[in-house]
Every structure is written in structure tokens, then in C-alpha cells.
Amino acid sequence: MARGLVRHPQRAHSTQTGTRVRWRRLARRIAPALALSLITALILYPFVFVILSSFKTGNEVRINPLGLPEQWRWSNYVQAWVEANFGTYFKNSVIQVVPVVAMVIFASILAGYALSRIKFFGNHILLVYFIAGLGLPLEAVLVPLYLMMLDFKLLNNHWSVILPQIGLLIPFGVLVMSGFFAELPGEILDAATVDGASHWQTLWYIAVPIANPAIMSLLIFAALWTWGSYFLPAVMLTRDSVRTLPLGLAYFVGEFTTEQHLLAAGTLISALPVTVLYVLFQRHFVRGITIGSLK
Known about the structure:
Shape: flat
CATH topology of the largest domain: MetI-like fold
CATH superfamily of the largest domain: MetI-like
Number of strands: 0
Strand content: under 5%
Number of domains: 2
Order of helices and strands: HHHHHHHHHHHHHH
Low-confidence stretches: 1-7
CATH class of the largest domain: Mainly Alpha
Mean pLDDT: 83
Distance between the termini: 73 Å
Number of helices: 14
Radius of gyration: 28 Å
């Protein structure tokens, strides 16, 4: 009996200790989830606000900015597309993005394969030269670019943005593609050479199909970069007829600050294409960047 009385406090103490340990484990699991939920809510709040505002009237946005719209007005998008000229801005953005992406991918594939798989004098120096372009800020070359486009009479022309964007993106493309091609098993390429394939045939029939993840990641990066570019088009394009979506949004904010519902609709028109592109090809983007950057 005495022994039982002596052991009872020890059992109570061990029970309390076990309860504390369980609470601590539970807190460790719940705390990160709560923190992530709070951060997610803070990040999503501006997006939800813009989406709701795009379906309201101007008075609703000012009176009840956080509430649901009394009537979901899809006509705001039509009005922003036509009257606010976002249709023209959208078309101009597409006109600039497509050739930039196509030329960057084509040039990066050729340069990346040549610098990583073909041995010639100075190929490593040339690769370093390309990669050094990543450290060149746009601000450092903007004035010479402007004067060059002025001499070529290309200001207020889409090519005044397309050509510099290609030059700015090619160093990154060469880095990604050369890193990916360098990781390809040499046996596969050597087998094609033994079968009589030239470097050109080996590149397009063997290497390029395997490099699909890196190409997709480069496509997404180049499209996102060009679509959201503001500084270079703001300098080269001053006419409303050639403005892109980022420039159009900035112009709309300056001229029509009271039309917040149309501004929200225009913002979603601008953000939707690149958002859909990234969501659809996110896995390819992450995989391609990871593989292409490891050497």
C-alpha cells in the first residue's frame, strides 16, 4: 500500500509531462499552418480586391470596397477593352512578345548547343562573354539604345523594343540551354554521329526533343519578362497607338484616376494571359530551370 502511494505522484508527473509534450508537438504543427494561412490571406487580398472591383460600378468601389458587387458587371471589361483602348494595348503586347520569344529560343538553342557540345578555340571564353551579359543593367545601355533607334528611325516602332529585348534575354537563354545540353549523355550524341548525322541533324532531331523542359522554361521566362516590361517601352514608345499593356495601365491611372472599376478590369486583362501561361506550364518552368542551371 505504501509503495502504491509513493509511485502515484511519479505517474501523475509523467502524465503531465506527456501532455505537455503532446501540446508542444501540436503547437509546432499548427503554428506554421496558421502563419502560412495568414501570409496567404495577405497575398491574396489585393487580388480579390481587384477582381471584385472589376465587376462593380465606380460608386460601389468607393462606398463598399470590400463587399461583393450588387450586380456582376461584365460590361466593365468590354468598356475597358474598347473605350479605354486596352484592346489595342493587348494587341501591341502580343506583337512584341511573339517575335522576342521565338528569336530568343532559336538563338539560345543554337548558341547553347555550339558552346557546350562543339569544341573549338575560345568556346569557353565566348560562353563567359554571353553570361557576362546577365550583369549588364538596362539603365547602363538605355541612352545608347535610344540614340541608335533614333538614327535608324525606329522610335515609336515595335522593333525599337523587340530588338533590345532579344539582346537582353539571349544571355539568360544561352546560360539555360548550354547548361542543359552539357548534361546530355555523350553516348546518345556520339551514336547519332556514328550513324552519319551532322551537328545540325543531331541538334534538331536528338538534342532539342530531349531539351523540351529547358525550352519551355525559357519560353515562359521570356514571355513573362517581355509582357511585363515597362521601362524600355516607356522610353521608346510615346504614341498611344503603339503602347503596350503596362504603358496603357500607367497612362490610364494618370488620366482616369476616378474610374477605378475600369482600372481593375484593365489590370486583370493585363495579368490574365501571363498568369494562365505560368499556371499551365509551372512544372515545366521549375524543372527546366533546375536542370538547366546544374552543370
